[in-house]
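Figure S7 source data.
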Amino acid sequence: MQTEITKLLGIQYPIIQGGMAWVAEHHLAAAVSEAGGLGLIGAANAPAEWVREQIRKARELTDKPFGVNIMLMSPYADEVAQVVAEEKVKVVTTGAGNPGKYLESWKNAGIRIIPVVASVAMAKMMERAGADAVVAEGTESGGHVGETTTMVLVPQVADAVKIPVIAAGGIADGRGIAAAFMLGAKGVQLGTRFVATKEAVVHENYKQYIIKAKDIDTRVTGRSTGHPVRVLRNQITNKYLEMEKQGATFEELESLTVGGLRRAVQEGDTKTGSLMSGQIAGMIHDEPTCAEVIQRLVAETDKLMKGTGMYE
Ligand code: TUI
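Tokens for the predicted TUI complex:
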């Protein structure tokens, strides 16, 4: 399953684990990398020293390449950007903003840079700025989302840039991966699939909420605040959307979700927690190990791709 992405990153399979806030810590990242994909530590809103510690702990668990995802809205983004350069992390992905000001220092540290983008314009800007690849993330994804679907975004980004494109959003099995390849992607990034795995250090209630979810169970909150976030519907989401419809202020809405991701992930609070998830949750029915997930994905994809000549 060799593609430009496996060659760029020195990994066995072009399968990347999303850098999910509060979920993507060193156990998950190391398990995905050990299984031949690329694990990511999600820096989210965490302080830089937590990220440094996570990088060092992941190195104790795996010799294989892994990366760090930097959430650019974090108050600690500048410090985390420096830590990844100091630690000479192999790969950095970024989300929720423009990483332009950090690119030169990361290049100098020999880091592979892969910004997550939700538009063609941003993909072109990142290529011009020196990115090695981009993740084109469709609105099917969980968490902070753009407007365009994976089906529509990936081929347009693939046409617009020469660097390899990684598809994200709505992928959880070999059919999704084969489809992404057909749209011009050279790799895929999966988030929700890796939340419901043995190695994900998240509350069992959250995993079970994903496993029980159906196709129509996600909602996007915060469209009115300019900060759209896809989550599984629950008591607090219903209230949020109702208040949003009635024209609630940013502060009123924020007060509902503050600390919600931690409540979901660590406390398993399925009523008032923010259970971030992609639309693909409806297709996730079990809690395998990361190695089992990757082996299944590879076997399913290989069967579909055989004879297409799209990868060696
Ligand atoms: O970043 C994500 N997904 C995320 S970040 C996140 S952290 C959070 N925690 C608590 C509450 C809310 C959020 C959860 N999920 N995905 C990558 C992504 N990046 N999707 C879209 C974008 C994006 C959007 C705008 C990338 C660039 C961009 O550019 C804007 C600009 O500056 O021009």
